[in-house]
Amino acid sequence: MIKAGIIGSSGYTGGELIRLLLNHAHVDIDFVYSTTRGGQKLTKVHQDLLGQTQMEFSNTVHQQIDIVFLCLGHGNSTQFLKDHPFSENTLIIDLSNDFRLQSDAKFHNEQFVYGLPELNRKKIQSSRLVANPGCFATAIQLALLPLAASGLLQDQVHINAVTGSTGAGIKPSATTHFSWRNNNASWYKPFTHQHLGEIGESLDSFGHDTGKLYFLPNRGNFARGILATAYTRYQGSLEDASKLYTDFFGNALFTHVTEEPIHLKQVVNTNNCHIHLHQYDDVLLVTSAIDNLLKGASGQAVQNMNLMFGFDEDEGLRLKATAF
Ligand SMILES: NC(=O)c1ccc[n+]([C@@H]2O[C@H](COP(=O)([O-])OP(=O)(O)OC[C@H]3O[C@@H](n4cnc5c(N)ncnc54)[C@H](OP(=O)(O)O)[C@@H]3O)[C@@H](O)[C@H]2O)c1
Q: In this protein, which residues make up the domain named Semialdehyde dehydrogenase NAD-binding (predicted)?
């Protein structure tokens, strides 16, 4: 068994990580650190864990630990690691955007590896530091990587994605509290969302020109999940596109291409990404769906941990969608 620590544990991604790791065959949760909840039972905050654990939040960390997950708000991970240096043998997975971009990836004499297994499986397997991708970034990259890898993403790409309210974290805000979000819809950060940077770096990594990405994020009136659509000009047949995608994701345990139109409920509460292709004249429409807290965050973090330690990639992640 390996020992794991979780930082930022009273939030949504922290709560999901605890749930996943409690059910992981090779992990003991050693400490669950919280700046605000030290001494309280985990179930005081994460009521879904009632009956599964008697653990309490701690206000100290153990520096000799096999792996630590950082589930802090953006900008806080770097400072946390400065204030709490872990053993040089400790593996670190950061869920924020602090280390995702190449320009931010350096940490002391090491580099964080971008933790999208469908892109960087080998690098993740041999790395000590992993920057877990953003949730929109995961859904959109999985929709576009096969085209980018084949140099077929050179025209403009129009992307529209809708996310549930858990994407914005546990603290209620003007656009996440019930009376605003329920029966409502809106877009935000048109064409300038912060995930465009990491998406662009991944798409460009194949060495082909990538057309401009126009990304419109939307807030949906549901709690979990991201449904993303992306379309661009495409000259081949739908059969060619289908083969491109199924070949590209041939070894991916969690990313599945389907001929049936997709919807959110088939992926929520799983670590899966489902992808559907549709052709209209010379346009290819790619739809992808994920659970923002699982494949978009904590599930992908556990997948990365499994790769880093050589466990079965889907250990602790054999989850069934709620579906209906
Ligand atoms: N929500 C998603 O769908 C999602 C998806 C992908 C990535 N992410 C990223 O994962 C990270 C955690 O997201 P989350 O949704 O779990 O957020 P969250 O629900 O707001 O939880 C963040 C937790 O961080 C801790 N924290 C400590 N110091 C903090 C500070 N100065 N500012 C903010 N938080 C502080 C708090 O826990 P304690 O009180 O226990 O210390 C807080 O509950 C973020 O960087 C987020 O962008 C989130």
A: 3-127
